[in-house]
Amino acid sequence: MSKTQVPLYDLVANNRPHLEEFHEALERVEESGEYILGPFVEKFEKELAKVCGVKHAIGVGSGTDAILITLMALGIKPGDEVITSPFAYIHTAGCIVRMGAKPVFCDIDPISCNLDPAKLEAAISPRTKAILPVHLYGQTCDMGPILTLAKKRGIPVIEDADQAIGAKYKGKQAGSLGSVGVTSFYPTKGLSAMGDAGAVLTSDDALAQRIRLMRVHGIEDGYQVRHLGGNFRLDALHAALLSIKLPQVEADTAARRAHAERYEKRLGELQVSTPAESENCFHTFSHYAIRVRGGGRDPLAAHLAANGVDSRVYYPVPLHLQPCFADLGHKAGAFPHAEAAARETLCIPVFPEMTRGQQDLVIESVREYFMAE
Predict the structure, then answer these.
(1) pLDDT per residue as tens digits for the range 23-51
(2) Going from the N-terminus, what domains does the chain have, and what CATH number goes with each?
């Protein structure tokens, strides 16, 4: 197998321009003695809230923490139902189950791979206490009909914007559209820390206050605990580094969009489906997910690897068919569009620092595979 010449991500290249600033930030944090929460976290939270178009950003330990603490703050309890996508990372449905609630899956739109609003109303029951749409691959769901239905039914909407910082729907930032949004700063995200970190986004003052308390076990002044929480705190060092990288998000997005435009021109004529930017959406292309039908996805991935090109399958098993959710009783065929996406989707490199030569290698490798058929 060829040595990798084009990685799926180049985290070193993404951080390299900031190394001197990182070292200075480390010294400032070290000398402050404020290592968890504190002024560095507060500064980043204010900057992030402004960028994301919300009143409050609450830094937490990870994107998973962000979902879990939000469900806790909304009072989700055993017997409740939360509607979400079956084509997503495990943490969405996993956090719902950790609350003792039931994940109710709603199939995806076959083009965007995001939750299909047309199928949402049929999934609602008297036990539905939240809707958790996932903005996949850097593009928001079609939020208009989701929010209209949620408002009509009095159901809060939790946006999973882990992959969608900088994405927009009708000009509004991902994470600012619903009752509350969550995001992740895992190293491969659009805004990345050097480890696990995340945030909750909301303009609801009362909810923000509750989440701020719950991230420190719910402890109020006088050591009173009204709302039981947990240890969901953001480290000061991550916050300091994220403050340095936050202004880079716009340029990184522009670079990925330029790569995506070139992919579309060079790959659109082949037997693959390239990702489309949905109406009303501003796509950040945090991942570039092509669709390969007819069983060719895995052979294409092997061909790319042999040519030194990394690729990744997100996600090979839809959530409703994961063994851990077998007790929900779903069988193959229950959510056909999610199952098709799991069989056919392959993410190829689109990281901002990718050179023209690296992208040429990706393009020619994909073209070579299909031309040889």
Answers:
(1) 999 999 999 999 999 999 999 999 999 99
(2) 11-247 (3.40.640.10), 248-371 (3.90.1150.10)
